[in-house]
Specification:
GTP Cyclohydrolase I, Chain A, domain 1; Helicase, Ruva Protein, domain 3; alpha+beta; 12 helices; Tetrahydropterin Synthase, Chain A; 3-stranded antiparallel sheet; 290 residues; 10 strands
C-alpha cells in the first residue's frame, strides 16, 4: 500500500498532520497525487466548517518596496496563533505577492500565485494545518512619488499598523505622524473630512448644552463656533496637539519640518469585529453538570 516514507513525503508536501496523511494515502490506495487532492478537499471542508467562528485576533503588517507599500490585516481566533511562524509567513507571503502585482481588491488578491499556490488555496491549507479560522480581512496598496516619504509604524508587533505619506519631510517625521495616529486614533484627518451630519449633530449638542447652562438662545448660537473648534482639535488628526510636542498641532509639526500631509491609513486588529466572550466559569459548570 504505502510506506512510512510516503507519509513523510506527503507531510512535507502539504504540511498536514501525520494522521491526516495516513488517512489520505489509505483513501487513495497510496497514490500520492490523489492523496494531495484528498487532503486539499478535506482542508476546504474543514475551513468551511470554521467559517462561522469568530476570528478577531491576528496581526496587521506593512511591507514597503520603493514607491509602493502594502498594509494588511489577517485575523485568527486566538492570539497564540497570531504568534505562530506559519501565520506570520502567510502574512509576509501575501503582502509580497500583492506588492508585485496590480491587485487592488480582495477578489484579485485571492487569485494571486505564491510559492504555496494561489492565496485562496494557501489560506485553506493554513486553516487545515493550524486548526483555527483564519481570515485575510483587508489590505490597501499605497503609492508615492519620489519627493514623498512613507512613514510606517507597528504597535505591539502588529496589533496596530499605520502607514502615512508626507511630501517634503523625511521618513522620521512621517513615522512620527504615524505613531501619533496609532496612539490617538482620531476619526477624521481634517475639518473638511468631517461628515456634514456629524458636524450638524455636534453643533446641536453644543447649543443644547449652552441653553442648559442658562444661556439665551442667541448667545448659545454664538457659542457654537467657539466650541466647535474644540471638537476639531479633539477629533481631527491635523488639528490635534502633537503627542511628542503638545505645544504644536500635527499640521504645524509637519510644516515646521518642510512637509505637507498627503495620506494616512490605520489598521487596528479586530476593530469592528464583535469579539467572542468566553465565560469560563459557566463553561466549567456546564461540563460538571453534564
Amino acid at each position: 500500500m504505502f510506506s512510512a516514507n510516503d507519509v513523510k513525503t506527503l507531510r512535507e508536501q502539504t504540511g498536514a498532520g501525520i494522521l491526516d496523511c495516513k488517512k489520505a494515502l489509505d483513501a487513495t490506495n497510496g497514490n500520492m497525487e490523489e492523496a494531495v487532492e484528498w487532503l486539499r478537499e478535506k482542508g476546504v471542508a474543514k475551513a468551511a466548517k470554521k467559517e462561522s467562528r469568530i476570528a478577531a485576533e491576528g496581526l496587521a503588517d506593512i511591507v514597503i518596496d520603493g514607491n509602493k507599500a502594502v498594509i494588511l490585516e489577517v485575523n485568527s481566533e486566538t492570539d497564540f496563533v497570531a504568534k505562530n511562524d506559519e501565520f506570520k509567513k502567510f502574512i509576509s507571503t501575501v503582502a509580497n505577492a500583492i506588492l508585485k502585482s496590480e491587485a487592488t481588491d480582495m477578489d484579485s488578491a485571492l487569485e494571486l500565485e505564491t510559492e504555496n499556490g494561489k492565496i485562496k488555496d494557501y489560506l485553506v491549507s493554513l486553516v487545515a494545518k493550524i486548526g483555527e479560522k483564519i481570515s485575510f480581512r483587508r489590505f490597501a496598496v499605497v503609492t508615492k512619488n519620489d519627493n514623498e516619504e512613507f512613514g510606517s509604524y507597528l504597535h505591539m508587533g502588529g496589533k496596530i499598523a499605520v502607514l502615512s505619506v508626507l511630501e517634503g519631510a523625511n521618513s522620521d517625521v512621517a513615522r512620527d505622524v504615524a505613531m501619533h495616529m496609532a496612539a490617538m486614533n482620531p476619526p477624521y484627518v481634517d475639518r473638511e473630512s468631517v461628515p456634514a451630519d456629524v458636524l450638524e449633530k455636534e453643533k446641536e449638542l453644543i447649543k443644547e448644552q449652552a441653553i442648559n447652562e442658562g444661556k439665551p438662545a442667541e448667545i448659545a448660537e454664538k457659542m457654537v463656533n467657539g466650541r466647535i473648534n474644540k471638537f476639531y482639535k479633539e477629533n481631527c488628526l491635523l488639528e490635534q496637539a502633537f503627542v511628542k510636542d503638545p505645544d504644536v498641532d500635527v499640521k504645524t509639526y509637519i510644516k515646521n519640518n518642510n512637509g505637507t500631509f498627503k495620506s494616512i491609513i490605520r489598521y487596528e486588529v479586530g476593530e469592528g469585529i464583535e469579539k467572542r466572550q468566553d465565560d469560563f466559569a459557566s463553561e466549567v459548570m456546564s461540563q460538571m453538570n453534564g
